[in-house]
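Risk register update: the risk of archive-format incompatibility is retired. Evidence:
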Amino acid sequence: MNRIEMMELGTRLKTASRWSLFKRLPVIPALFLLPLVLFGIFGAFITPHDPYLIQPALKLAPPGWMDGGSWSYLLGTDHMGRDVLSRIIVGARSTLIVSLCGVAVAGFIGVLFGMIGGYSGGVIDNLLMRITDMQMAIPPILLALLLSAITHGGLTTIIVVIGVTFWAPYARVIRGETISYKQRDFVALARVAGCSSGRILVKHILPNIVSTITVLVTLQLGSAIMVESALTFLGVGLQPPAVAWGLMIADGRIYISTAWWIPTFAGLAIMITVLGANLMGDWLRDTLDPRLRQL
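Archived output:
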């Protein structure tokens, strides 16, 4: 092999290595989720207009690229003259808080049930798993709708509703992981050393299932966003004057034929965010699972 061929081979290997690195990194999910994170943290400082300002003279103004639109209101205005883009940016904060906190509550309940049941076994395990089975037998959106209607909505209420609705899958998966790890030698040695059951669960088993919990949280993030938006759209979630994507769709649905941009852009924000969360969850599952890394 001469020098030119060796240089060409080196170039091909570098290109292949870069492409392999690109495939290993969650580029597309990160691009989808980055706006949610930025808007959720800095949204109040980067909105082009006051999202709560009512301007009757500007109501139902079309997006900037359409006839009659203004580039100052890039995505148009709603039926009260409020800037759609500003409301989408501010609405990301509600979505981020509700989805992350709700999934965290669900994860705490599910992990607690799963670890206690899987490690204890016997009657305790059977009791917790029967409760889990009853929870999984009820459609999540139906249970969330019922609980939200009873409690009359609100930010804290929706977080609790999502937590109560989504904990069962955690319990099932974490129980299986706990049963697997409690049979390992390092757990047996911890028992011989006199460690209590609580210490074994927290110090020896929990660190080994963190990756599984992370994947479950990410995969459920999209579902939590969908549930929050659906409940808000139906009027049992976040209430005005709060700004939320589900509220924007609910307010704009009667104008869909004349002012399509009001519900459409909020719906696109939900779709992109949910897609990004699901793709990120798939990437984390493939990355953190050693069995998949070998394929």
